[in-house]
Amino acid sequence: MSLTVGYFRRWFGNQAITDNFALQSSDFNSFSVVAPVDPRLPGGGGNTVSGLYNVTADKFQAIDNRITLASNYGDFIQHWNGVDVTVNGRIKSVTFQGGTSTGRDSWDVCQIRAKVPELNVGGGILPFNVNPTSPYCGGETKFLTQFKGLASYVVPKIDVNVSGTFQSIPNTAFSGLGVGTPGLAANFNVTSAQTDLGRAFAGGAANVAVNLIAPGTFYGDRTNQLDLRVAKIIRYGRTRTQVGVDIYNLTNSNAIQTYNQTYSPPPSTTWLTPTSILQSRFVKLSAQFDW
Fold first, then answer.
1. What residue ranges do the domains of the chain occupy?
2. By the number of CB atoms within 10 A of the CB, which of 3, 31, 107, 110 ranks highest?
């Protein structure tokens, strides 16, 4: 039997951003949005989401984009801290291995966003998008844990191999690389009349999407999946054949994989409705020949 425990800290640097040199901080107006009162929202809603930006109308089409180092404007902080535990063992005819991975992302680009309100980063750089209507420029996820394990046993005398795998994964893009989407969002399409901006959105936009939930604070259900395999071993001379049956998602779990994250206030119930669930139980027959 062996046991491995590892601590990992990853940090990223020398990040680049795109700055529109035709704009200054003074070319933006800040505004806020009051979230609807809704028991489905963290804290029951009713909170104010502030720190949102909209460019002035006369600068809407001013574009002079240049790629430059983020460090020219402030700190671009992106860290990952995690602990992995792995066990491998064999007891007579039983072989098993498994482990846990626990960690969290943390980030802070608030200094940069204050100087570059049009900042728009994400898409594999940060664990979520930072843009003029996403004020969450700093924060960290909860410590999230995933578990994966497998075991195999050969029944003596009858030469039947029984094996299985189990995994329990939180409902989030849990990569440990600082990318993905930490938790669920409530993307609320608001009109200018629902804000304190005091004017129409630049460019005649009818609405803008504002996430009412800070990233890393609200998560869906975990996915627990059990797979099983039973195979008969047939030996003849130097050949070895396995005829088996594989059962995936043995418990027929219908764990939600993705959600509708476009928010609509009550009485609408479309927010967080499932858009995909774990594939249902299915069976596969197989044969493997070794010589």
1. 2-290
2. 107
163 alpha carbon, distance to own chain's centre: 30
Per-residue pLDDT tens digits for 52-66:
999 999 999 999 999
Residue 26 is classified by DSSP as G
Enter the tokens of residue 48: 């104010």
% of the chain beyond a pLDDT of 70: 96
Residue 194, helix vs strand vs coil: helix
Six-digit token string for 59: 């600068």
On the 0-12 / 13-18 / 19+ scale of CB atoms within 10 A, 135 is buried
Q: In a 10 Å sphere around its CB, with 0-12 CB exposed, 13-18 middle and 19+ buried, how is residue 282 labelled?
A: exposed
Position 161, amino acid:
N
Work out the burial of residue 267: count CB atoms within 10 Å of its CB; fewer than 13 is exposed, 13-18 middle, 19 or more buried: exposed
What values do phi and psi take at 204, rounded to 5?
A: 75, 20
User: How many residues are present in the chain?
Assistant: 291
State how far the Cα of 35 lies from the Cα of 188, in Å rounded to an integer. 9
Q: Is 118 helix (H, G, I), strand (E, B) or coil?
A: coil
Instruction: Report the distance separating Cα 73 and Cα 121, nearest Å.
Output: 14
Q: Is 203 helix (H, G, I), strand (E, B) or coil?
A: helix
Q: What is the pLDDT of residues 244-268, one digit of tens each?
A: 999 999 999 999 988 999 999 999 8
Q: What value does the mean pLDDT take over residues 5-12?
A: 93
With contact defined as beta carbons under 8 Å apart, do 35 and 188 qualify?
yes
Query: What would the two tokens of residue 245 be?
Result: 């049956």
Report whether 129 contacts 180 (CB < 8 A): no
